[in-house]
Amino acid sequence: MVVAGTTFCGLHARPGLSRSLTGLAAATYRSRAMRLYRAFRQVAVGMAFLTAALAGDALAGRNDLKLVNLCPQAASQECTWVERDASGAVTGVSIDSGGKSRFRSLMSELGVVLAPRIPMPAGSLGFAGFLVTGEMGITQISRNQDYWDGVRAVAPQTPNLGRPDSVLTTLGVFLRKGIWLPVPALELGGGVVNLLDSQMLSWQAYSKFALHEGFHNLPIPSLSVRGAFAYLTGTDQANLGTLSLDVLVSKGFGVLKTARIEPFGGWSLLLITASGKTIDFTPLSDTDWQANTAFPGQEVITRHRVFGGAKLKFGLLAVIAQYELYLAGHSRDESVVSAVDRSGKQSAFSLSLGLEF
Fold first, then answer.
1. How far is the C-alpha of 108 from the C-alpha of 319, rounded, in Å?
2. Per-chain mean pLDDT for the chain
3. CA–CA separation, 277 vs 296, rounded Å?
C-alpha cells in the first residue's frame, strides 16, 4: 500500500491520489450498476406490456387450442364421443384411444414449440456477467396430421380447408445472470415466450453449471450441464409443462482482436407433462353439463433433441443463432387406454439478440 506523501521506488505519491482512485472505482461501479438497473427495468416493462397485450379474449388467434376439434363430428355436428340415453339426454363423454393419441401427439409437438431453447454456449457469463436478450424461434410442425385439428385455425366440419401454418413462430425476452454461489461457474436465467397468433405464453427458467471453462489458449472445449423448465399459460384447454436436461460443449476464439465467436453444440432430453382442462364437448348447447369433461393426464412424453449454433460477441452486443433437430416421438401411455405419441420429426431455428454486460 502506498501512503500519500511518501516516496516509493523513486516515485512520489501525491496527496489525495488514493482518494481519487477510490472515487474513480466507486464511480465505475455506480455506472455499471445503473446500466444493469436500466436493463432490468426495460425488460420488466417489456414483459409487462407483452403479458397485458395478450390477456384479452379479443386476441384469441389461429394457433390457440380448441381441443373439441379432436373429436370426430357426426352429421348433426356433435362430437361422436358424447353418449346419450334413449331419451336423448347426455350421460357422459367417452374419449376413445384414437382421441387420446391425438391429444398426446398434439401436446408433444406443441411442447417442442414452447420448450426452453436457451441458445447459449457451454461457458457461463461469469459471476459478474449479465445478459438481456430478445429471441425469435421458428419450429416446424406436422400441420396436415389430424392431431393439429385441435387448434382454432381448423373447422371440424371441413378440417382440410383451413390448417395451421407449417412453421410456428415464437417471440420472447430473457434475462441471464452469472453467479458465484452456491458453486462457481453457475448461471441462472428466465423469461417468457409468446406463440404468435395466440394468447399462449411459455414461462421459462433455467440453471446451468459449467463443469470446466476458461481454457482460451488451449484446444480444450468448455463443458456444461443445464436444466430448464417451461410452463404454459394463456389457455383454458390444457396444462402443459416441459423439463429439459441438456449437455453442452463449446469453444470460443477471437476474430481480428475485435470480436469473439463461440461455436457450440449439445444434446437434450425433453420430458413433457400434459393434461386437459374441462371443456364443453357440446358447444352448441348450454344445458348439457354432463358433456363437460377433460382429456386425461398423460404419462410423461419424451423427446430427444440435438442442436448446434454459434455466439458472436462484439463489444456489448451478443448475437446467437441455433439450429435444433427433434427426433420423432414414440412414447406411449398405457395407464388406462393406450395412447401413442405419433408426433413427427421437427426442426427449429432460434435467433437471439442482446446486450451483455
1. 29
2. 85
3. 9
- Give the whole-number percent of the chain exceeding pLDDT 90: 65
pTM above 0.90, yes or no: no
Show me where the domains of the chain are located: 18-53, 61-356
Dihedral sign, Cα of residue 211, residue 215, residue 221, residue 222: positive
Q: Which pLDDT tens digit goes with each residue over 86-139? A: 998 999 999 999 999 999 999 999 999 999 999 999 988 888 889 999 999 999
CA atoms within 13 A on the CB side of 80: 11
Compute φ and ψ for 76, nearest 5 degrees: -80, 5
Topology (CATH level 3) of domain 61-356 = Lipocalin (2.40.128)
Per DSSP bridges, beta strands 339-340 and 7-8 are unpaired
Q: How many whole angstroms separate alpha carbon 119 and alpha carbon 345?
A: 20
Q: Which residues contact 39 (CB under 8 A, 6 or more apart)?
A: 130, 132, 355, 357
